[in-house]
């Protein structure tokens, strides 16, 4: 079944994409929750017009994201955490701390757009974070965890 996504859905697609999914997934989950609509011929025509009108705005947003990405490539973060004598962190470092560190440097990045290669960071060391600024613009920044 073809559907038009009304919002970004991880591992499926981005907003306003036309994707094929199984009938049960569409009819029992995506459409009732308002995440998608059925891609009928009339809905596809309306969708094409909306995409055409939105293309100019998307280009501007992508340009802004590219400018921010260039500035972020020069940034290196240092995050302090309480640690044991062996370098183990009490708790863990997550996207909230990275977002706060970026905020203090003047970048307003939502924590939901930050991911790590490692699932949980529990030791002092150097790591990298991926920041998604736009669906086509993803930048990696290095950060270091130090003992406070």
Q: How does this structure look, described?
A:
The protein has 148 residues and is of the alpha+beta class. It folds into 2 domains: 2-63, Ribosomal protein L9, N-terminal domain (Ribosomal Protein L9, domain 1), CATH 3.40.5; 70-147, Ribosomal Protein L9, domain 2, CATH 3.10.430. It contains 3 helices and 9 strands; from the N terminus they run E-E-H-E-H-E-E-H-E-E-E-E. The strands form 3 sheets. A 4-stranded mixed beta sheet has the order 4-9-8-6. The chain has a 3-stranded antiparallel beta sheet with strand order 2-1-3, covered by helices on one side. The longest helix has 32 residues, at 41-72. The mean pLDDT is 89.
**Which CATH architecture of the largest domain would you pick?**
Roll
Distance between the termini: 54 Å
Helix content range of the residues, please? 25-40%
Number of helices: 3
Morphology:
elongated
The count of β-strands is 9
CATH domain class name of the largest domain: Alpha Beta
| Elements, N to C (H/E) | EEHEHEEHEEEE
The strand order across the widest sheet is 4-9-8-6
- List low-confidence stretches: none
In CATH, the topology of the largest domain is named Ribosomal Protein L9, domain 2
Overall tally of structural domains: 2
Radius of gyration: 20 Å
- Main beta sheet: 4 strands, mixed
Overall mean confidence score, pLDDT: 89
Q: What's the name of the CATH homologous superfamily of the largest domain?
A: Ribosomal protein L9, C-terminal domain
Structural class: alpha+beta
Percent of residues in β-strands: 25-35%
